[in-house]
Design goal:
InterPro entries: ABC2_memb-like
Number of domains: 1
Distance between the termini: 23 Å
Strand content: under 5%
Protein name: ABC-2 transporter permease
Keywords: Membrane, Transmembrane, Transmembrane helix
Order of helices and strands: HHHHHHHHHH
Length: about 220
């Protein structure tokens, strides 16, 4: 499994195309927080950009490189099980998401736009929860269907952007402020538990169907 993780890290950070993909995704996700002058930028980044653009970037880049060089055909002949392959990708995805959420927290605290500590913590936790849901949906799709698996990611991004376009910014900010003032601990804990359960289901479902996948 260590070899699989090392391979994915090499593809994403030491090959120019993979690095540019990661770098451009970070740039897109950081801009609303850095340049925004109200609470909308952090909300948009924490609930849409970080979870649904940045979180799948690592696996998306890896799948693209694997398909280009037909790596999966050689991978299954190596002394590594298919379970190890799936475990490595999910583990690396969780590490990447943890790193992303740490950056999100730091940026929210540094560029808070007048946000209080509770708001920053709320947005950071929502970013974590949404990122786990994103991994649970996007990883199976990308691992099992390759670049065609990007369709669910585009659908979720489209729905998210549509919501932000339809609902006035003032309403989004007002809803967030109301959420901050309510007793949100049980809600967030419940959502986090559901997200983790969903992640485990995603992992075992992906593992099951990947074991049956044929490589041409």
């Amino acid at each position: 499994m260590k070899g699989e993780i090392a391979k994915d890290l090499y593809e994403n950070f030491l090959i120019k195309k993979g690095f540019l993909s990661i770098f451009s995704s970070y740039g897109l996700c950081l801009l609303p927080i850095i340049l925004g002058d109200n609470i909308f930028g952090p909300i948009f980044a924490a609930t849409l950009l970080f979870p649904f653009i940045l979180a799948p970037t690592l696996i998306q880049s890896s799948v693209t490189m694997d398909e280009k060089y037909k790596y999966e055909q050689y991978q299954i002949t190596m002394p590594v099980t298919r379970k190890d392959i799936i475990s490595a990708k999910y583990l690396l995805g969780l590490i990447f998401t943890t790193f992303n959420c740490l950056i999100l927290f730091i940026l929210l605290f540094m560029k808070s736009n007048g946000l209080d500590e509770n708001t920053v913590i709320l947005l950071g936790i929502l970013g974590i929860i949404f990122s786990i849901f994103s991994i649970s949906i996007n990883y199976p799709s990308l691992i099992l269907f390759g670049n065609w698996g990007m369709i669910p990611m585009f659908i979720m991004m489209g729905i998210g952007i549509l919501i932000y376009v339809i609902i006035p910014i003032s309403k989004i900010i007002e809803f967030t402020n109301e959420l901050i003032t309510m007793d949100k601990n049980q809600l967030l804990i419940g959502l986090l538990i559901i997200a983790v359960i969903f992640l485990f289901i995603s992992y075992f479902v992906t593992q099951h169907f990947y074991n049956k996948k044929e490589f041409n």
